[in-house]
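User: Could you check the structure of this?
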Amino acid sequence: MSIERIDFRSYGSSQNLVLASLLLCLCLVLPFFVGNIPAIGAMLLPMHFPVLVCGILLGPRYGGLVGLLAPFTRFFMIGMPPLLTAAAMTFELATYGIVIGLLYSILPKTIPSLYASLIGAMLVGRVVWAMARVVLIGVADLPFSFEIFLTGAFVNALPGIIAQIVLIPILILALKQAGFKSRSE
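Assistant: Sure, the predicted structure tokens are below.
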């Protein structure tokens, strides 16, 4: 089964901006569904979903921008996530949006390629998150080790990772079946 890139760019730049804004708003709102409890948020990763979807639908520029803006926008609006967490997440989420947008645009438009784009972005984003945390060790006295990396990036986040791997491809395929224009690149 082949899937084609959903080409929202054909709708015009103002529509792309509106869709990116909607996805940014979802980044701000979805964490409320986990009750702003940091441990549950770190487990379910609610801000990651809209960024990954944005990268697929609108490409690396919009995906990176939404990922870049989401953590600090939420921090400045309601004080969550905490400042240093928001700083690390900014680099992580921007990387998700950029990498998934790039991979999805260059790989064949098949379901396995969609999964490869998603998993590739998730892995690269977690490495960037770790690098940001290492830099933050110098700014604030934050503990960080390889064990903390594995626990934070994979063990604690496993429910969110599984949800992303299951739900995001379903959403993308549903959008395509709903009649969004698509074209093969």
